[in-house]
Structures are given as structure tokens and as C-alpha cells.
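It is worth pausing here to work through a concrete case rather than discussing structure prediction in the abstract. The textbook approach is simple: state the sequence, then state the predicted structure, then interpret. We follow exactly that order.
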Amino acid sequence: MTRMLDPRIKVAVLLFVNLLMYSSIAYWVEAVCVLAIALGLLYQQQYKDAAISLTGYGMIAALTFHMVIIGGRVSMAIGAFLLLVRKMFPVFMAAKLLIHSPSGQLICALQKWHCPKVLIVSITVILRFFPTLAEEFRSIKSAMLVRGIPLNVKNSICHPAATTEFVLVPLISRLSIVSDELSAAALTRGIEVPKKRTSYYKLRIGYPDVFLFLLLFLLLLAAYLPKLGVTF
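Step two, the predicted structure:
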């Protein structure tokens, strides 16, 4: 059975991470934040996502510090770009944590918060859209490989027109159909019924949820209290 964090906690985590990453914080706060999200991914058995995220973040952080040590205009410009990517990395990790939630759990959580039905439909369709996007891209890549047209960086640079014709056109066409299908699926399940809806899922905040929430909340306190003049 797949373990899942409570969607309400994952929404709070995404909010906390955004507040942390787009503020001036110490590097150790950022590193602990990344480790906390990685623990959440590991708890949900997203081992591959956790490994890729930690490896990618470590490489970007190392390159950023290396560019600062080298110095020079070009190195500093590259370092500034890598710093922006590094700041966005934990946000993408938190979003991955949320996107992995089953649609039913997310809808149940939003209903408990008494969110408008229009907002619930929009959020659930958007969150299911990105995994579908990746799946459709893999299908197009496999179809091109069967036809002897491998999709790689070299072909994309040398033949941009062919890449647009073989990848972007079918992808956009397919995604317009998929978005309609996702909306129709939500409506078929009675998402817009005016009466109070029941749910198959029974959400319960457990110890892992509390641990992750408190850890990121303490990081927020550590980052913002000194700015408010509060010292211990």
C-alpha cells in the first residue's frame, strides 16, 4: 500500500517553501528545507524523485559556489542564473510532492476547506494535467523513435522546423483533447453537484505530516524572526 501525506499538509508545505525560497535566508535553512521535502518524497515511496532531486540540487549548489570562487563577469552571471535555478528547485520538489496526490484525496481536502467548486475543478484538472503532459511526450518520443527519428538535443538544434512539426504540433493537439477529457471526467463524477459530496477517502493527519509541517514551520521562524528583531 502506497503511503501518502495529507494533501492539506502538502499545500501548506508548498506555501512555506515559496515563502522561504523567495526570501533572503541562510544557506543552511535552504539545505534543511530541501532535505525535509526529500524525506516527504521518500515517505511517499517516490525514491527516484528523491534521488534525482537531491543529486540535481547538490550539483547546482556546487556549481553556484564554484562560479563565485572563480569570479569574473561571465562566471558571476552564470552563478546568478544558477542561484535562481537553485532557489526554484525546492519549489519544484514541493510541487512534485503535491502532484503525486490522488485526485480524490485532493478534492476531499479542498472540500474540507470549503473551497468554491470552480476552484476545486480548476486545481484538480491542472494538477492531473502535468503527469498527462509527461506521458503524452513519452508517447510522441517513442513514436518518433519507431519511425527512425530520435528526439535528442542535436536533432532539435539542427532541425528546429522538423522538431516543431513532429513534436510540438501533435503535443499541443493532443493536450487540447486531454484537457477536455479531464474536465469531462471531473464533471462526470459529480464535481459540480450543489449538494454536499461524500468521499471515498478519509483524511487523517498523522505523525509524518506533523513532523514535516513543524520542521518547515520552525525553518520559517528561524528565517523571519531575526528580521523582525526577535532574538533568543
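Step three, interpretation. The mean pLDDT is 80. The longest helix spans residues 117-146.
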